[in-house]
Design brief:
- The chain is an alpha+beta fold.
- The chain folds into four domains: 8-101, GIY-YIG endonuclease, CATH 3.40.1440; 105-250, no CATH class; 296-446, Nucleotidyltransferase, domain 5 (2-Layer Sandwich), CATH 3.30.420; 462-509, Orthogonal Bundle (DNA polymerase, domain 1).
- The chain is built from 17 helices and 16 strands.
- The protein has helices at 8-15, 42-51, 58-66, 78-92, 140-153, 179-182, 196-210, 214-230, 234-250, 262-283, 340-356, 377-390, 428-461, 469-479, 482-487, 490-497, 500-509; strands spanning 22-27, 33-39, 69-74, 107-111, 120-123, 132-137, 163-166, 169-172, 296-305, 308-318, 321-322, 328-331, 370-374, 396-399, 406-412, 415-421.
- The strands form four sheets. Strands 9, 10, 11, 12, 13, 14, 15 and 16 form an eight-stranded mixed β-sheet that branches.
- The two termini are 24 Å apart.
- 30% of the residues are buried.
Length: 511
């Protein structure tokens, strides 16, 4: 890092930048916000300002010189980071954010009820006085995504054709269906394929969904589906069912009002997480999980290379959000063979024995409401059998990687079988368990790399005479790995091992 980093505090904050999507906030010595930015990876993005200082434009170099502290707000993905960035800029109006400090970045959805067949348009300004506006929204990208999804569920027109209906007769400036009709994105009212009443019903569904009347829309669709099924119109009922699934996946709209700040944003996100949890519970009725506040899910993964450097990870989500202070790592003690089943068994034994032994570790003091095992039937069976042996009863599922299928144990009079459950590919519940599984995988991989690097470094240091276990540990604590040890100066090495002869041997024998 260049010398532009002028304080230990700032260096520490840079080092603590998470490898996650989110927003970063630069402040000066007085606490005034200088700049708000977003990133898919906060660590890489923030460090790039300082590492590439000489390549920055003059305005940004002047800003960097004033940075006294950095604040991070982690998001679930780059889309949320994009939305949150706009909210923060609008709230703080930072000096160095020149493009988003005014309302020009905000958009509304406009529906003109004076038209027989109203369009749904995305606009920057509210110029049509009698139109119905929904918003404002923080950014066009997520808004376009929402509208694209809604249009697939409830088709509507975007053309400039003049279409009217009088006494049941439709007239249009062009009565030939366009490409969007063939794509299923418009029901072609211009060609008389849809009445004014039915077309406006689609628009009403979209309007209700966006103004937070989603339950009303879903209830109406469910009633329609049941009626169609009762009439044995199963194909039509299936189409309604798919619409319901797609709407549930779409979740809450991202509505940004004049007073919105990051707390409102987090509240909206929490509501979506609650729905995802409810949907997951409803999809697993056999497990009899009760929805409640502080619902706790633990997920486990194993990482190894042909059995070597094997580790296990435990990540914890509470109310659908990661509780990182409860994450725990396990160094596998089982023999060095690539046996995932045995390794999962060991991790589950150690976790539940800590609970049974009344460990003071807050991660193990209580049982989770659900356990997710990253793996299929074999891994799930190992975890389930371990619970039975320890007389512990926690709902547990396996998540297979290939098709994202869920497996549930069916234990009938001691004979174990498995039930496969597939969640809708666009369901919030599926997204939630994938996110939890991916976090467990990331945590396991990170720990595995640390263990491998450490052990390989220890093995390399064994070549150096005079470097015993105590000195090896000191060196690795100070520098991290062999590569950093070899790059350290003689003075830095002497500060750790206090012996010039040993330093000389390190220089001679290490690559």
């Amino acid at each position: 890092m260049p010398n532009i980093i002028h304080s230990v505090k700032l260096q520490e904050q840079l080092d603590k930048a998470p490898d996650l999507p989110g927003c970063y906030i630069y402040r000066d010595k007085s606490g005034t916000v200088l700049y708000v930015g977003k990133a898919i990876n906060l660590k890489r993005r923030v460090k790039s300002y300082f590492q590439r200082f000489d390549y920055q434009i003059v305005r940004i170099r002047n800003m960097i010189k004033q940075i006294d502290s950095i604040e991070y707000v982690v998001a679930d993905n780059d889309l949320e980071a994009f939305i949150l960035e706009t909210n923060l800029i609008r709230k703080y109006k930072p000096k160095y954010n020149v493009s988003k400090k005014d309302d020009k970045n905000y958009s509304w959805i406009m529906i003109d009820p004076s038209l027989d067949f109203p369009k749904i348009e995305l606009v920057r300004k509210r110029t049509v006085k009698k139109a119905f506006y929904i918003g404002p929204y923080a950014a066009q990208y997520p808004l376009k995504h929402i509208l694209e999804t809604l249009r697939k569920i409830f088709p509507y027109r975007t053309c400039n054709r003049v279409i009217t209906e009088k006494n049941g007769r439709i007239s249009s400036s062009n009565s030939k269906p366009c490409l969007y009709w063939y794509l299923g994105l418009c029901n072609a009212p211009c060609a008389g394929y849809l009445t004014k009443k039915d077309y406006r019903q689609n628009v009403t569904h979209i309007k209700n969904f966006l103004v937070n009347k989603k339950e009303k829309v879903l209830d109406g669709l469910k009633t329609n589906m049941i009626n169609l099924a009762a009439q044995r119109k199963f194909e039509a009922a299936a189409k309604i069912r798919d619409k319901i699934s797609d709407l549930v996946y779409l979740g809450t709209k991202v509505e940004i009002e004049e007073s919105t700040d990051e707390m409102n944003f987090r509240k909206l996100k929490a509501e979506g997480q609650n729905r995802a949890l409810k949907e997951l519970i409803e999809a697993l009725p056999e497990l009899k999980i009760k929805f409640k506040k502080n619902l706790k899910i633990e997920c486990y993964d194993i990482s190894n290379i042909q059995g070597a450097y094997a580790v296990g990870s435990m990540v914890v989500f509470v109310d659908g959000k990661p509780a990182k202070d409860l994450y725990r790592k396990f160094r596998i003690k089982t023999n060095n063979t690539p046996d995932d089943f045995l390794m999962h068994r060991e991790v589950q034994q150690r976790r539940f024995k800590k609970y049974l032994d009344k460990s003071e570790d807050k991660s193990f003091k209580t049982l989770p409401d659900l356990i997710i095992i990253d793996g299929g039937k074999g891994q799930l069976s190992s975890a389930y059998q371990t619970q039975k042996e320890l007389d512990v009863n926690v709902p547990v599922i396996g998540l297979a990687k290939r098709f994202e299928d869920i497996f549930i144990v069916d234990d009938q009079n001691g004979r174990i079988d498995f039930v496969k459950r597939s969640l809708h590919r666009q369901s919030q519940a599926r997204y939630l368990i994938q996110r939890i599984r991916d976090e467990a995988h990331r945590f396991a991989i990170t720990y595995h790399r640390q263990v491998r690097s450490r052990e390989e470094s220890l093995s390399t240091l064994d070549k150096v005479p005079g470097v015993g276990n105590v000195i090896k540990i000191k060196l690795l604590k100070a520098f991290g790995d062999v590569e950093k040890i070899t790059k350290a100066s003689d003075e830095e090495l002497l500060n750790v091992i206090k012996n010039k002869t040993t330093v000389a041997k390190i220089r001679e024998l290490l690559p």
